[in-house]
Amino acid sequence: MTDVRLDHVSKRFGSIQALDDVSLHVAHQEFFCVLGPPGAGKTTLLRSIIGLEHPDAGTVEIGGHDVTGSEPGKRSVGIVFQNLALYPDKTVAKNLGFPLRQQSPRPSAAERDARVREIARLLRIEPLLNRRPAHLSGGERQRVAIGRALVRLHDVYLFDEPLSALDALLRVEMRAELKHLQRNLEKTLIYVTHDHVEAMSLADRICVLAGGRVQQVTSPQEIYRRPANKLVAWTIGSPPINLIEMNVVENDGQLSLDHAEIRIGSLPDGTLDPLRALMGSGATLGVRPEAVMLGRDAGDSRLACRVIAVEPLGPETIVDLELHGQVIKALTPPGVAYRPDERLPVAFDLGTAHIFGGDGATVYSADGDQSLVLHVGAPPNE
Ligand SMILES: Nc1ncnc2c1ncn2[C@@H]1O[C@H](COP(=O)(O)OP(=O)(O)OP(=O)(O)O)[C@@H](O)[C@H]1O
Ligand SMILES: [Mg+2]
Hints:
alpha+beta; Rossmann fold; CATH 2.40.50.140; 2 domains; 7-stranded antiparallel β-sheet; 6-stranded mixed β-sheet; 34% strand; elongated; binds adenosine-5'-triphosphate; binds magnesium ion
């Protein structure tokens, strides 16, 4: 059993709180992704697990053993660093075999050779073993770098944005390879990325880290359907979720969320108390671009918005719209040519909407429930 447990880990660099009371449990043989913006503390988290960084507070356990004070060599953890470099004057085989030469006790030449071949087979780079790095493509070089981290047998492997230097097409290709690799490796993998698509497609579970704090840990499906807060909702999805500031209003005992052009009535029972507490400070409505419908798809909606910009991407089109001085984005099917400055009927599918409170925490995720009702036009009582 090789699980990884962090318990209340904090790490500060001068005035920067890189990790702030981080508690996590990564299960045996799990593919665990840590997703977060630059500076979130992702690399510091990995360095704390491998032992290159020592937390100011908290404990790190690997396979049930407290390793908080132990040196990196004493932990069975391999790492693929964010900026990887191969030895330019050594062949792929020598690059892969180098970590084994430094192992103590040092495996025999035959053992080293067998292990290098095994890793090369796993990463499908056998035909490249006699080449030098300069004669490899970016993706091939990346595979060798990953192989060099995997060649020594460890219980846990850490990946620090291993694909970030690759172009978009290669990233997609390598993503599929990594998934395949993990199934064959049968190891615990902790994989850091700032790319939500990468995290969603690879992970058994995703941890969103921001400002050194764990925002949420859950499955890719759940994190999209039920984000814990506004920041998590914003992190998952491209273009990001539309956030519309609303006022919490009560008229004749009826609570609603009001905006200059729209009102949401019929709020679900569970939201009434938390929303009433937000009277005066307001709440935020979260509507994903894929839930914004335009033109004919908007049915008989009386809400109309001006088109600001149109980005045709091929399989879909992003349309920027103006809603009362704010830009909202719609992700629409291809086939309709929208033009800047035209006014279009707009509707929201609130069956996937979220309501966030003043502190950003999620008050309500519709998750298929259709009970939120959108009224268009100035709120009738004002
Ligand atoms: N050795 C250090 N000395 C001082 N500050 C540091 C050090 N290492 C990290 N930091 C700071 O701690 C914060 C977290 O850094 P970290 O490298 O863990 O972020 P990250 O999430 O990996 O970011 P990126 O996506 O850019 O790689 C940042 O503000 C960074 O500037
Ligand atoms: Mg980093």
